[in-house]
Amino acid sequence: MQKVALITGITGQDGAYLAAFLLNKGYYVHGIKRRTSQFNTARIDHLYQDLHKNDIRFFLHYGDLTDSTNLIRIIQQVQPDEIYNLAAQSHVQVSFETPEYTANVDAVGTLRLLEAIRILGLTTKTRIYQASTSELFGKVQETPQKETTPFYPRSPYAAAKIYAYWITVNYREAYGIYACNGILFNHESPIRGETFVTRKITRVAARIKLGLQENLYLGNLDAKRDWGYAGDYVKAMWMMLQQEQPEDYVIATGETHSVREFVELAFKNVDIDIVWRGTGLEEKGIDSISGKELVHVDPRYFRPTEVDILLGDPTKAKEKLGWKSETNLETLVRMMIIEDLKNVQRDLLCQKNGFKVRSWSE
Ligand code: NDP
Ligand code: GDR
User: Residues in domain NAD(P)-binding (predicted)?
Assistant: First the structure.
């Protein structure tokens, strides 16, 4: 029997990689997408199957994590073997500006899904994966961070995700639902959201290289993250739901790098050697050949409370799931830069033919 999966957040970075992965494994894949005023399916358009044809295994449903009636109806209709809850207001900085909405989606949204499983009597049929995060560790109590490291959230996003983490554990213990938290450290790709720091850097480096932009403005250059590749990480999500017992796992590379190092690496991939001058707000990243000041610090990107360093210990995932990160940072950055150079070339072509292209980046 082919399995049926339901993915919330299917239009996001991880949703797109996971949907492709599960379709490849022969799953029927259902996804929940939000109604938006413009198409929001660019990341999954290549997976679309014409509903008028036979043997369709990919379906999209309109829905929202803030609407439990809708979630109950979709789950009742789909009767999934596995639910992957990836939907979230996932931007840490934005969560300081929209804290209540973030809590509604990221915390209560998870509860709504778990309750739907219970209300529909699916507690023994449906397994659920919760997209937990290294942001739970926040103000780090121990390095490297593993499953037993205490949490200390540092943003409305992390505080919402900590509720989601514990309600997932609680429904596992209270009702016997097969429910797992994947505590995933940052993972990136060429389809990463454009306002997360890695993609912002690779995108602007490509634009600077090809003359479409002059400067890159960033916040905290000292923040350190354990960056992996999203394509590797969605495999771990699936593995967690295939075990005998539901457990929570840290998924990480086991390496950490600063934003500053990421900048150097990205520019190196477009043949620009960045050297740093000055300190604090005056710090600048300079092209060592032309002397141009390319990278500037802009305090608008500082966060009220920051997570200074994240470094994961993926030993449990390695030993119990047989999972390990397969893509190193150099390869990841190269993949991202190659795609962003193509995107800029497309923009340049549009511009040359009189079409307007986006001239700013957040
Ligand atoms: P994205 O921001 O790329 O995608 C988020 C998805 O959630 C999008 O499909 C978005 O829809 C959807 N969404 C947002 N709000 C709602 C809502 N109210 N109802 C329904 N859907 C909604 O995130 P990622 O793919 O990077 O991350 C996936 C999950 O993993 C998130 O929960 C994130 O918090 C978590 N996570 C991510 C990590 C990472 O490094 N990427 C690390 C650890 C955890 P739309 O496209 O319409 O905006
Ligand atoms: P993060 O990712 O907050 O770790 O959350 P992000 O890429 O936004 O920030 C990483 C670090 O870079 C610093 N930074 C900047 N960040 C952004 N976005 N823009 C900037 O200009 C900038 N300059 C410096 C930040 O201060 C931070 O320290 C991501 C999300 O995917 C979450 O959903 C997920 O849970 C965690 O990763 C793990």
Answer: 6-336
